[in-house]
Amino acid sequence: MTHQNLTRILPGLLTAVVALAFAFAIHAAVPALPAMTLAVVLGLLAANLPGMAVWTAGRARPGLDFAGKHLMRGGIVLLGLKVSLSDVLGLGWLALLLIAAVVVASFAGTYGISRLFRLPADTALLIATGFSICGASAIGAMAAVRRISHRDTVLPVALVTLCGTLAIGVLPLLVHPLQLSTEAFGAWTGASVHDVGQVVATAQTAGPAALALAVVVKLTRVILLAPMAALAGAEQRIRHRREAGRQRAGGGTAGGRDGGPAAGKPPIVPLFVIGFIAMVALRSSGWFSAGWLEAAAGLQDVLLGAALFGLGSAVRIRTLLHTGARAVLAALAAWLLIAALGLAAALLMVQ
Asked: Would you place residue 256 in the very low, low, confident or very high pLDDT band (cuts 50, 70, 90)?
């Protein structure tokens, strides 16, 4: 990175760091509020408060965009260190099959609902990925694989944050009406809440047993990020070849997504997804001590938190209210679908 580029992105990166410090401070004071959710909320505030809005849309924008794209990928790689295959396999094959079924049904159902509400295909794809796998991290991964514009991730991230925050408040209230055991509530939370931090905030209300099971179930969903990204990359590569073939048949040249120069063949599996898989393998090998894992988790929180602030700072509430009404309704419908699917799977897991 040249000195000129560093000077250009530094104001935005420093802004993200300061905001992230506030997010961690609030989380320390109120543990029920996940730091990652707070990072998005602070980004939303920064984008819409007079004075700050000028800063985030102006001089800080290049650095905030850099955080939303590149720091997000670094955070996804380190997310793999939270996943241990031994913990996942310890759930048993029935639970694994149920979790996979919930992810597939959630993805298909959310995509279908989003298209039913006439959302663009790319937006529907990102919403389905974030809701069914692991929130904003999955949205960032899918956007990178499918070469979807950074600005097009803003609405899906806002929606997954909204619905994940809603789950923190609503799911614990349903424990007694639904007569759920501690284990059933933990499995339900892990199978249906979007982001890892939101899962922790929701499940901890029922005690350590529920939290432990919720985290393992959730991280099992996270593992499915790698095959999902690989399938999306393969489909994108096939589409690229077909478009190139049509261009050659017509006597032209293959263009980029917006009609510009050819962007080259998209990779089937991006490097950051390969890095995620490698980190899962390293965690499962037992090579890392608890201290190293804790340090990596802290760094992951910093990278993802800064990225989420950057994404949140691009959301203009006025624009969202005008253009995102259908998206909000679609997201709420998808949230209800995933909650129902997760509950059914959880009851089957712990019966």
From this structure: very low
